[in-house]
Q: What sequence folds into this?
């Protein structure tokens, strides 16, 4: 099928989690992922704590309070730190979070956004993106909100993880920065 990203899919997933577990999606994430991995600085976003920006008429303007951060719900209603994101990526890269069957399903990809101008082939699985160039394959996910954005991923061959966070809602550069960083580390090894 054709690729089309939609936050609605993650909202629906949150509803499914609530139906299956009988708990709020955020509680299920906390008890099944956050606490077991020791992600002490990860949880539901309740207030704008870091200044963030958006681009308007080629100028960055303060967008910190543009939208309440919880508006994303299961599609982005969590906040975290680089350290916690790296813990999550390490567990994902090492196969500690999912059954082998779920991991295989998650890594069944279809063509994604056209990043050929960056020399990158992009594809999308079940909540996991794949970025490939001549040097490296990186699995992860890019996300943005009203005033912040991030990329979390890992080098498939080495398992090296990276988290790139920005205080702007400009999605895209984070993935390129992550790929360039992981490529440099791979070449240095």
A:
């Amino acid at each position: 099928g054709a690729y089309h990203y939609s936050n609605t899919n993650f909202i629906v997933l949150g509803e499914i989690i609530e139906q299956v577990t009988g708990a709020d999606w955020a509680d299920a994430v906390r008890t099944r992922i956050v606490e077991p991995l020791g992600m002490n600085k990860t949880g539901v976003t309740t207030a704008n704590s870091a200044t963030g920006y958006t681009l308007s008429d080629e100028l960055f303007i303060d967008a910190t309070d543009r939208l309440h951060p919880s508006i994303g719900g299961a599609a982005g209603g969590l906040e975290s730190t680089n350290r916690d994101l790296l813990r999550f990526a390490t567990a994902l890269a090492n196969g500690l979070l999912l059954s082998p069957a779920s991991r295989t399903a998650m890594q069944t990809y279809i063509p994604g956004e056209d990043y050929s101008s960056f020399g990158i082939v992009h594809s999308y699985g079940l909540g996991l993106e794949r970025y490939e160039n001549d040097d490296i394959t990186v699995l992860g996910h890019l996300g943005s909100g009203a005033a912040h954005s991030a990329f979390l991923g890992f080098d498939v061959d080495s398992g090296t993880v990276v988290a790139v966070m920005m205080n702007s809602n400009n999605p895209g550069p984070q993935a390129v920065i992550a790929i360039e960083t992981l490529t440099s580390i791979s070449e240095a090894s």
